[in-house]
Amino acid sequence: MARSWSLDRECRSLHWGLERPPRPQGLQARCCRRPRPGWTMAPPRNVVKIAVQMRDAIPQLIQLDQAKPLAAVLKEVCDAWSLTLPERYALQFADGHRRYITENDLEAEQLLGGLQSGSREGRREALRRLVLLSSDMTFAREVISRDGLQRLGTIIEDGDDLGEVLALALRTFLELMEHGMVSWETLSIPFVRKVVCYVNMNLMDPSVQPLALRLLESVTLSSPALGQLIKSEVPLDRLLVHLQVMNQQLQTKAMALLTALLQGASPAERKHMLDYLWQRNLRQFIYKNIIHSAAPLGDEMAHHLYVLQSLTLGLLEPRMRTPLDPYSQEQREQLQALRQAAFESEGESLGTGLSADRRRSLCAREFRKLGFSNSNPGQDLERVPPGLLALDNMLYFSRHAPSAYSRVSAGKGGGQQNPHLGRVSVGLAVTIYPILCSPHPSSETAQDFSPMFFGQDQSFHELFCVGIQLLNKTWKEMRATQEDFDKVMQVVREQLARTLALKPSSLELFRTKVNALTYGEVLRLRQTERLHQEGTLAPPILELREKLKPELMGLIRQQRLLRLCEGTLFRKISSRRRQDKLWFCCLSPNHKVLQYGDVEEGADPPTPEALPEQLPVADIRALLTGKDCPHIREKGSGKQNKDLCELAFSVSYDRGEEEAHLNFIAPSKREFHLWTDGLSALLGSPMGSEQTRLDLEQLLTMETKLRLLELENVPIPERPPPIPPPPTNFNFCYDCSIAEP
């Protein structure tokens, strides 16, 4: 493809460098265009005169046609000096930065020049081309080194065109920034405020506001100072307006900025913000219009709902870390309210002529009945965790489910010793919190949110109410005593975790499913899992398994290559977040070429013939995974990249005399294993993934059982063998009932 050189009206010296050993050679040159006397017609604008020089050679003055490809120019210069192998040479500026001239160099210079065009159409075309090329790291480096970000920032700040030009400028700016070569903290306050204006505008091109929200999210996550500015300039009500539109992309980016602002806020600010959002019915809107929307929930929105759930439930942690204060009048009154709710009739009798000592003795006895270790319940609640969170749960239970609270606290309905309410409340609070609350809300790809959380105002306390009744039910099923308390808590934790993993959409559905998971069902599931995990260690069986392994590994290899031939859609992952760009890669049916190319969101997977790019398998040098991949090394070693690192793999291949890489981010751990296994098989390397180990174990188990069922050459009698006659005496029998003298 032709490239042009932007050297018009400029005089620069160039250096022609020889890149092959033993020592570089070069030539000096000057380029200029000057009118000469007697000329009647100006030369074409794309032709300039370039002076080129090389060490130990006579300089030459050439006419450079900027429309020619750089490779053609190099060949002409080499031919003038009778140099062979022109691909071994490169142009280099002779003074100043002494940078080598590349195709990217020329393209960047031309497109950035197009941004200065007085024509709107010229700027639009330059921006369209920049958007396509800016995802390339090398090209992005060239653009940034030529003040490309400043030029784009000027277009964004001026805001002369609020339509396609502004959207293209924002998209290009984001692509360049997300390579991580320039810090988001370097952005100016006026620039950030201008982007905020685009977010706050009522009438705006629908393609602009998602990009503006995405830019503000990146700034908020990277710069605390600018994040505070954005928090003060973007009202929460404005984000709620964006969340309530029917544009799914705008909803997702508004939720992304909202979670970024919440993560950057202090605990007190976060609580204030979340209280306000819940008052404005954000939870109900998410539950009805996002989670239960007709459109499928995207990965990015699922991640932001996971972060929102973690941050909201994280507000409970201060209560969990705060012990009960024995001198707090409010907390003493709350404890008395718990006692009175459980023993109302006896509580009423306290005021009927009892002495102070008798009243204290009766209170102490009732607190012990509630399950506290002694007459002073404050000593049990001084333990952190759960601290005051256990007290909050018990109060909520007593106020919102009084009949169940009275039944559980009185220990009715069982023929065996019942669990103590106080001890159960402390243990259950410690059990539920880590199940429902993630310790790493900033994980970039986690999506494990619970739909039930957005269906209730007090989801944690409601889950406690279900859990404490479940524990009472399981206690009776296990016929447990107080010595079995820890065992019962383990079973209840397993019941809650297994049911939450099913992602029930409502509290009622959760209650139904968890009550159906009885202690007997838990034992059955454990036994099934144990049988799947156990393997026999008998020597004959081990020998048979070793003989079967080569055949089964060949079967796995065949399946992996077939999976590569089917192909997979991969997402292009930036340094900040998941993007909507997709590309498809597959292996040719003859297993000789990897074919790949970009595809549109929602489109059917393309046929191999429709993919524009090809990589011969014979050119592949090695397979890289995890931190060894170049696109992971460029992102750094932050915690947010840990999940991406586990899904990353690359293939290095020869491109001319250089080493290039084709980089992948697998959509799932299973796809990562299938692709790395398949590529390893193509390269003749062992398939060492965890998935291969599991598949081999499953096939070995099945094949071993089938082989053991085959009774070849073993005669099976038609009649059972005869019973042998009884022994002649029974002197070998010892009667244990006879006492020895």
From TrEMBL:
Give the matching Pfam families.
ELMO_ARM, ELMO_CED12, PH_12
Tell me the domain of life: Eukaryota
Q: Which CDD domains match?
A: PH_ELMO1_CED-12
Give this protein's Gene Ontology molecular function annotations.
Answer: SH3 domain binding
**Presence of the UniProt keyword GTP-binding in the record:** no
Q: Carries keyword DNA-binding?
A: no
Matching entries from PROSITE patterns are given as: ELMO
User: Known InterPro entries for this protein?
Assistant: ARM-like, ARM-type_fold, ELMO_ARM, ELMO_dom, ELMO_domain-containing, PH-like_dom_sf, PH_domain
Give start and end of each ELMO domain.
Answer: 330-500
Output the PANTHER family linked to this UniProt entry. Answer: ENGULFMENT AND CELL MOTILITY, ENGULFMENT AND CELL MOTILITY PROTEIN 3
Which purpose does this protein serve, as stated in its record? Answer: Involved in cytoskeletal rearrangements required for phagocytosis of apoptotic cells and cell motility. Acts in association with DOCK1 and CRK. Was initially proposed to be required in complex with DOCK1 to activate Rac Rho small GTPases. May enhance the guanine nucleotide exchange factor (GEF) activity of DOCK1.
Tell me the protein's name.
Engulfment and cell motility 3
Query: What gene does this protein come from?
Result: ELMO3
